[in-house]
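Xylan alpha-1,2-glucuronidase
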Amino acid sequence: MGNKEWTQLWLGYKNVSNDNKTVSCEVVGFNKDSQVIKSALCELKSGLKGILSDEVVDNAGSYDIALTIKKVDAIAKEGFKLESDTSSVSILASDDNGALYGAFELLRQLSCGKKLSEVNVEKTPSNPLRMMNHWDNMDGSIERGYSGQSFFFENKEIVVDERTRDYARFMASVGINGVVINNVNVKDAATYLITDRYFDKVKELSEVFADYGIKTYLSLNFAAPIELGGLEVCDPLDEKVIGWWKEKAKEVFGKLPHLGGFLVKADSEGRPGPFTYGRTQADGANMLGDVVAPYGGIIIWRCFVYNCTQDWRDYKTDRARAGYDYFKDFDGAYHDNVILQIKNGPMDFQIREPISPLIGGLTKTNQMLEVQIAQEYTGHQIDLCYLMPMFKEVLGFKTYCQKENDTVADVVSGRAFGNKLAGMAAVINTGNDKNWTGNYLAAANLYGFGRLSFDTELSSEEIAREWIRLTFALEKVDEDKLTDMLLRSREIYEKYTSPLGIGWMVTPHDHYGPSVDGYEYSRWGTYHRADHLGIGVDRSDKGTGYAQQYYKENAEKYNDPEKCPEELLLFFHHIPYTWKLKTGKTLIQHIYDSHFEGEAEAEQLFETWKSLEGKVPSEVFENVSHRFELQIYNAKEWRDQVNSYFYRKSGISDQKGRKIY
Ligand code: GCU
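Structure:
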């Protein structure tokens, strides 16, 4: 079953066959029977054998290393400290996960070129929850998946094999401690994941994860009491419904000891939820929170709730407002084991959006950030789009929810308001392709999200360089080239797609390639409102009032087109084509220039990539080259469709006289 071949991503330790290396391991204070400690030891043994070389040890040829894993209670939860000298190294931690993460850090630092004696570091994870959300369906398909089929599910069965173990290793190596295995849109067979049809297999899978310190989570169907229990309603305040869930929770947690809890998409895009019964989101989330509480379970409740049957003629309803409108009034009403999971922007993972005002807008509720490394709107893992620069902007955004500790990173880590349950989740970009992520270079986002969720202080560049060093053996000049390609890629993608924060303009449903009006007259609330004079949505106090959902400092800035950051100008304002930007260019000229530049820069990316031929494995070279060919085709389509569209609407020519159709 499944694809039989897969790469080792960033854990491909090099000279594994050399056995003149002796690494003695001592475990002090930890339970030697702990599976997590065993995983750490196993990884260290094989990893060090591969990595130890004259470059790594201080005295050439001295490969006898004494390794100690020691329990030190003073070290923070899931944190670690590494202490080393020329022939010994200690990994200190207060819990199993900390020891495992310390082991991976040691291997990473040595693989990245540090000498053994230089590996002295202490780390505490920035976020308590660091999660991957799979949108895998039980028939094997993946919603918004661009790397093959699911490696968890095939023909409505669960697959557990060596690949599952490697997946768990990769996730643990970057600090992931929770995985939701099934799509948030829970239908058909997936509804039965909480029944004895699947308990044995989910348990087997969750045990593999547990060996690597990862808890398993399931997405739930809110209508399960109807679909599985034969009840007439799924009203969260109905006694029979509550009773059904209580029994269910008892059964599920009894069968699945490694289960962390559930993720719920309710009242969203056709999924059932409490609104059907005139109940609130808090009623739904708290009811489930209460039934899982006796087992230490948590409920992660998504805030992606909006009216998806809007009339495009309606200028008052604003999808961007919806999250805040539905959730802010109940701030403080959510129970302690409930977390609200909030997408980074108020719309849907566009290449540029403002940060959701709900993050930090809520001050008395557990909250976590949701981002998407599956490149649904950012090029389907065909176009190169390294997302860490975007995530760093999100994390660094000042919400003004407090005087200090007011960034998104402060809020979602739990620091700002003292929440124990908090963190980051990514909609994952993996599938059963040999290289896991379709495009070999898209693995930088997989690696990057994990690293960033563990340490939000890391820079995009540090993460990119680590990933490159661990994945390829490149000379410094080539590493520089590839780093630069990754770092520029998001800006380039943004330039040739939708301008200045307006978003969308994508082919409906599929979301790859341009269709400027594709969503303009639809029910999805995703409009650009372009006419012959200008473009953009007025979300100021004279428009939908969305800008007022932020704290004063941000609200004032966004409300005024003169003060609004220009990359978001069209998200917040309807702007005439003749409007002068800070560069001195008119809006229309900016649209033309950025689209010509973006396409040209995509071609440069490919040229730079071509210079790496023979330096990366040929399979990688071919895989990525093919995708660059498609990216350039895509960039040309975007450039020409967007430019022609706005030329035809505005009647204003390009000052530089370039070809517009
Ligand atoms: C997007 C995406 C859907 C997904 C949804 C969600 O709208 O296109 O496929 O189900 O987000 O986040 O739930």
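The two ends are 50 Å apart (CA to CA).
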